[in-house]
Write a structure and sequence with these properties.
The protein is built from 14 helices and 19 strands. By secondary structure, the chain is of the alpha+beta class.
């Protein structure tokens, strides 16, 4: 168990039950939610507070704890056991999730984060959960803001984390985003609950650890965690307004093919402010390329400069090809030097392929899912109708080809024809950009009779 944290003063007050009731109000009425718990201070405090809150809220959701053994440290097995034991004491169901496969030679934290997200999202789907609840807090928000500031992020990045967000098609809630870590630590201490400490949280090889060490000095100059978090919140509010404009632009002027490529009018893009243009391209690149995060701002700016250099231009960024021709931007997934990994599945279940498509099987099936240009794919030809509509044939080389695992004797590409998916199987685009419902503004919350 961990020693006292010098950055978390002991005089901080635990989170009260009244506060918890306000913090967890967005969860009321949901059928079931998953809680991501690592065994550290933050997530254990979240689990404890949620377990206590549900005892006096008849409209509280079912709670399922997910804890991930990523296998990158010898202690990870014991940490997940500790979480499971505490969850049992609190009367909560706990699912221990284990990452399989070799340990990466580099970027361990990023690999652990990616593996954890994938396992948590899969587990939530399997349990029929409505949302995943995370323990990010005020200090996390301030650190994220500074990290992104150092990377030159724009409004979107500097908005940092949001209370309501999505990982792919998985809704994510962060109810503790306004609570300092010191108060979460005090919450555990008040109950005599121990926690685990990841030694990488003190490793100055990581930028977040170095940023964290600067926080006391920054606070002396007025850049407290709360001030930084409030600034991130204001930028997120501005970002939401920009996102609404982007959504309207895409709705009115973009055409998204079921197989993955996207087309959008250059004239429509030329009429919008630069920030909207950049955010629209970031959104499209992320959807088409399947990346977990949008490209950095300076790379987007260079892409716009390249695309502005002529009426027939092609560039690549973030795993996507972008072609300007005949007054249209067409974007599609780039195959890359290594190609796109195939997916072999035995249903029923839900799988994400290439960060772009969701494969759902409600019945026992054996299926292969691979890129249409894969030499082992038994793919239908691109129909002449698609070419007549302006879609380049090469834009479909990375389209998904679903075929029977019994030898590929039947195949299907969304929007391109084929034999069609088997009964009880659906292959659809991953809805990465479903809008998160924004809270009403301050005026709406007051009501007309209070103005």
């Amino acid at each position: 168990m961990a020693a006292p944290d010098p950055h978390c003063p002991t005089e901080a007050a635990p989170v009260s039950s009244d506060e918890a009731d306000r913090l967890f109000a967005p969860l009321r009425g949901l059928h079931r939610v998953g809680i991501a718990v690592s065994g550290g201070v933050d997530s254990l405090a979240l689990m404890v507070l949620l377990a206590e809150w549900r005892t006096h809220r008849p409209d509280a959701p079912d709670l399922i704890v997910f804890t991930v053994d990523h296998g990158f440290r010898a202690e990870s097995d014991a940490e997940t056991r500790h979480v499971a034991q505490l969850a049992a004491r609190l009367g909560l169901t706990c699912r221990r999730l284990r990452r399989l496969g070799p340990t990466p030679a580099a970027n361990l934290q990023a690999a652990a984060r990616a593996a954890r997200q994938a396992l948590l999202c899969d587990a939530l789907r399997a349990e029929g959960g409505a949302a995943l609840v995370l323990a990010h807090h005020l200090d996390d928000q301030a650190e994220t803001f500074l990290l992104r500031l150092a990377r030159g992020s724009g409004v979107q990045g500097l908005g940092a984390m949001r209370e309501a967000d999505r990982w792919g098609d998985t809704p994510v809630l962060r109810p503790l985003l306004g609570v300092p870590k010191a108060r979460l630590l005090a919450t555990l201490r008040a109950r005599g609950i121990g926690w685990c400490e990841d030694p990488s949280n003190a490793d100055r090889a990581h930028a977040r650890v170095r940023i964290r060490a600067l926080m006391p000095a920054l606070a002396e100059e007025g850049l407290t965690a709360r001030r930084l978090s409030e600034t991130a919140g204001r930028l997120a509010r501005a970002g939401q307004a920009l996102d609404d404009r982007v959504a309207r632009l895409l709705r009115d002027h973009a055409r998204m093919h079921p197989a993955g490529p996207v087309r959008v009018s250059v004239a429509a893009l030329a009429e919008v402010p630069e920030e909207i243009l950049l955010r629209t391209l970031a959104c499209l690149l992320q959807r088409v390329g399947g990346a977990a995060y949008p490209p950095r701002m300076e790379r987007l700016e260079r892409l716009v400069e390249t695309l502005s250099g002529g009426t027939r231009v092609q560039a690549t960024l973030a795993g996507a090809v972008v072609r300007r021709a005949d007054g249209v931007l067409t974007l599609w997934r780039e195959a890359g030097r290594a190609g796109i990994a195939a997916l072999t599945v035995t249903g029923p279940g839900v799988w994400i392929w290439d960060g772009r498509f969701v494969l759902r099987a409600d019945a026992p099936v054996a299926l292969d899912l691979r890129a249409r240009g894969d030499p082992q794919a038994s793919a239908p030809a691109v129909p002449e109708a698609a070419r007549a509509q302006g879609w380049p044939g090469e834009a479909f080389a990375t389209a998904p080809c679903l075929q029977s695992g019994r030898g590929g004797d039947a195949s299907y590409c969304p929007g391109l024809g084929g034999d069609g998916p088997p009964n009880g199987v659906a292959l659809t685009l991953l809805e990465r950009f479903q809008p998160v419902v924004a809270p009403p503004n301050s005026l709406a919350r007051r009501g007309n009779n209070e103005i």
